[in-house]
């Protein structure tokens, strides 16, 4: 699934899209994607788990994803980084015992 196709599944504001692009986000694969915002003085206080299901970032633990309508910058940040999104999708298949179909 291309990043444009993934983005069509998410609702977000222009402000969120811009922040997802320019903020210093770091990513690591865990039981989802751990997103750390190193733009903050204490990045550990700004680290959230994003769940990717069937190639779409569907949920984030951050307060904004729960509080506001639409996807947060962490979910959009993953969606616009196609290699990361693909790795997260592949990783979730391995973690749940599924198989990837080429």
From TrEMBL:
Q: Answer yes or no on keyword Zinc.
A: yes
* InterPro entries on file: Znf_SWIM
Q: Which UniProt keywords apply?
A: Metal-binding, Zinc, Zinc-finger
Q: Which GO terms describe its molecular function?
A: zinc ion binding
This chain belongs to the protein called SWIM-type domain-containing protein
Q: Which organism is it from?
A: Haladaptatus pallidirubidus
Residues of the SWIM-type domain: 48-83
